[in-house]
């Protein structure tokens, strides 16, 4: 099985560098595509210099994660995608390799990576699984998701809806060693919590309260281990 890894980013600087230092060592990933969503921190020059094998796509203007993912999907040459956020902490090459190897057994269609360490708000709405940007999924299902035209933070909840409709077999790694950089670390406590609440409202507005609650209660309940 050949896998394309897509990493969208916007002004992630050192966080992206650390992520790529790990991901580029994973032998099971055949292609890495980084999509610069209008960054102004110059990190794309770092990618070009130290990771020449990475496919780098640059968007001159910030258009959001969905547009960045769409560019990566268009460029990807393999039918299976490994979507990763750029701001991950606690990544390990061995865990990523074992995650891919677990997926290739063929008994699941989608694999979502959860997090070991989360705050109370994330635990309350199962956000570490439902809204996880770390997932192995088919290019077909991501393309269908993009056709729904989600915006901002809505990509994952839209994808979950597609996966539910397609009756995909979904496995969830409930506690991996990685974690995202919390929003308050980027924008401070007030700005961080404002974005958390804005994200929650955006998701409910897109999916509707019934779909949102269905995902919280029933989505990706099959727990798998490495």
Q: What's the average pLDDT?
A: 88
Assign the structural class, choosing from mainly alpha, mainly beta, alpha/beta, alpha+beta, or little secondary structure. Answer: alpha/beta
> In whole angstroms, how far apart are the ends?
18 Å
**How do the strands of the widest beta sheet line up side by side?**
3-2-1-4-7-6-8
Key descriptive features of the protein:
46% helix, 226 residues, alpha/beta, 7-stranded mixed β-sheet, two-stranded antiparallel sheet
Task: Explain what you see.
With 226 residues, the protein is an alpha/beta fold. It contains 10 helices and 9 strands. The chain has helices spanning 13-23, 43-50, 65-75, 93-103, 120-124, 127-130, 139-147, 155-165, 183-207, 209-218, and strands spanning 3-9, 31-37, 55-59, 80-83, 88-89, 110-115, 135-138, 170-176, 179-180. A 7-stranded mixed β-sheet has the order 3-2-1-4-7-6-8, with helices on both faces. A two-stranded antiparallel ribbon has the order 5-9. Helix 2 links the parallel strand 2 (31-37) and strand 3 (55-59). Helix 7 (139-147) crosses helix 8 (155-165) and helix 9 packs across helix 10 (209-218). The longest helix is centred in the C-terminal third of the chain and has 25 residues, at 183-207. It is globular. 38% of the residues are buried. The mean pLDDT is 88.
């Amino acid at each position: 099985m050949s896998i394309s890894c897509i990493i969208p980013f916007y002004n992630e600087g050192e966080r992206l560098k650390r992520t790529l230092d790990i991901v580029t060592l994973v032998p099971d990933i055949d292609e890495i595509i980084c999509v610069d969503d209008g960054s102004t921190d110059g990190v794309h020059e770092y990618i070009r210099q130290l990771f020449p094998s990475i496919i780098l796509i640059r968007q001159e203007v910030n258009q959001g994660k969905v547009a960045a993912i769409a560019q990566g999907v268009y460029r990807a040459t393999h039918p299976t995608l490994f979507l990763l956020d750029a701001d991950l902490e606690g990544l390990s090459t061995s865990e990523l390799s074992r995650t891919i190897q677990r997926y290739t057994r063929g008994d699941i269609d989608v694999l979502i990576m959860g997090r070991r360490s989360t705050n109370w708000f994330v635990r309350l709405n199962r956000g570490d699984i439902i809204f996880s940007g770390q997932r192995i999924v088919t290019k077909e299902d991501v393309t269908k998701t993009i056709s729904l035209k989600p915006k901002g933070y809505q990509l994952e909840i839209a994808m979950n809806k597609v996966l539910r409709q397609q009756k995909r077999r979904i496995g969830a790694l409930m506690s991996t060693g990685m974690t995202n950089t919390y929003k308050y670390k980027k924008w401070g406590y007030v700005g961080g919590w404002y974005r958390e609440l804005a994200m929650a409202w955006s998701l409910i507005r897109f999916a509707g309260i019934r779909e949102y609650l269905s995902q919280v209660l029933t989505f990706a309940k099959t727990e798998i281990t490495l």
